[in-house]
Each structure stands twice: as structure tokens, then as C-alpha cells.
Amino acid sequence: MCKGLASLPNSCLERAKGLKARLGSLLQKPDWSLPCCKIGKNRPTPEECLRWKESFEKLLSSKHGLCAFTAFLVSEFSEENIAFYFACEEYRSTKSAAKMPTKAQRIYDEFIGRDAPREINIDHETHDITKANMLAPSSSCFDTAQHKIYMLMAKDCYPRFLRSPAYRELVCQASMKSTKQPRQEKTA
Questions:
Q1: Mind listing the pLDDT tens digit for each residue in 31-75?
Q2: For 80, phi and psi rounded to 5 degrees?
């Protein structure tokens, strides 16, 4: 064992081994995807998969696209980005002003604050702006950080997703599914 690892508590090492085992299975399967992408006849069509190439927005607006992209981010250990983005979307839609401070604090503690378990990668200026916004949480208090994360995903993660073997395999599987269906209908 590495000397640096020996100094860590056993609970950290066990947790890391568990994560590695769970995520390792995703990384080894060339046709991986989350369960929501494989539900019976509700698989994405080849056309839907190809539409995801048109824009990041089209990918995110597709149930299957979001699922596949999230699975890709999990495989790259950066799923906190999409989780933060949608936490902000959900937060912005909060109707009750009384609930906003609690929800804002929960998002801040999970993604931005010191020792956040799912810390997102934002610059110090954005961090400071968001921290200042937390003094009086409003529906727009995470806008700057959310925009930075959106741009990071759009310019970095999204192009890598489109080049990934996982995306190519998903398109291939969807194409094979669509070519098999007409034959099955003729024999029925």
C-alpha cells in the first residue's frame, strides 16, 4: 500500500474501495447506461441519439440523453456538475420564499461550501459571489455558479461525451434495435 494511503482512516479506504468497485463495473462495460435508458421499448431511437449531437440543450432536454450524459459524467467522476445544475433549476422554481433560505443552504453545503461532499469546480471569484449571495438568498443566488458549470459541461464534458465509446455504442445499439423491429413486425 502507498505510504500516503496508510495514514488514512480505514473507513476512508473502505469507502474508496466500494466506490471503485461500483464505478469499475460502469467503466468496464462498453454498452453501459443507467437503467432509465434501458426500460423496455422506451429506448432512444437512432434519430434521438443523433439529435443530441446538434446541441447541448437538445441532449439535456431528452430524457434518454440526460440519462446517458449523467452516466458518462459518473464514469468520469464529475456527476456533481449535472447534479448541481439541476439542483439550481429546481431551486429557482421554488414558489415559497420561506423555503428558499433552507434550500439554498442545502445546495451551498452540498456543492460549494467548505468541505462540500460534491464540490463543483468554480473559480474563487464565482465562489465569493455565490457566498455573498447566500446572505440574502434569492431565486438568482446561484445563477453565476450555475452558468459557469453549464459552460464547463457544454464546452468540455459534452464534446467528450459525443466522442466517447459509450455514446457511439448507444447510437449503434439504437440503430440495431430500429433495424430489428421491422423484421419482428413482419413475422408476427
A1: 344 555 554 457 788 899 999 999 999 999 999 999 999 999 999
A2: -65, -25
